[in-house]
Design goal:
- By secondary structure, the chain is mainly α.
- The protein has a single domain, classed as Four Helix Bundle (Hemerythrin (Met), subunit A) (Up-down Bundle), CATH 1.20.120.
- Helix 3 runs antiparallel to helix 4 and helix 3 packs parallel to helix 5.
- The chain starts with a helix and ends with a helix.
- The relative contact order is 0.15.
Length: 153
């Protein structure tokens, strides 16, 4: 792991997308990234790989679908592009999963690759791409509140 990947990623309010369910799912992912980082540093990564893989399989299916549904609910104009990014993530995960079941695969290298993938996903997707829909939807919600307030006056 390089120095940037060694850093512990911690949740803070600036990472919120303004949706409690999605934020909680993001927090769970962040926790799993931390578990995998620690396992790599302690030499326990290969043993933890199955558990992390199972978490990721559920996360990929559930979270990305929930996020897409949320974007559609608010007619997010960047939905199609965001969904393409999610589709890429689904494909990348499928490739990592296939490597897990390959007997000849170096499982320690796979654990490092999974950690790198998750770390990069967090840095590039959640803190950048997800913030785009979050900002859009939060502006809509503020506009709706302002409209409701003026109607009630």
């Amino acid at each position: 792991m390089n120095e940037e990947q060694n850093q512990v990623l911690e949740w803070n309010k600036s990472m919120s997308v303004g949706n409690e369910l999605l934020d909680n799912q993001h927090k769970q992912l962040l926790k799993q990234i931390g578990v995998l980082k620690f396992a790599l540093l302690s030499g326990d990564a290969v043993e933890r790989l199955r558990e992390i893989g199972e978490f990721l399989e559920n996360y990929i299916k559930q979270h990305l679908s929930e996020e897409e549904k949320y974007m559609l609910e608010y007619n997010y104009p960047g939905y199609e592009n965001h969904k393409k990014i999610h589709d890429w993530a689904r494909q990348k995960f499928a490739e990592l999963l296939a490597r897990f079941f390959n007997e000849n695969e170096d499982k320690m290298q796979l654990a490092k690759d999974v950690e790198r993938y998750l770390h990069d996903w967090w840095i590039n997707h959640i803190t950048v791409e997800d913030k785009k829909y979050a900002d859009y939807i939060n502006k809509l919600k503020v506009g709706q509140k302002n409209t409701n307030n003026t109607e009630n006056e």
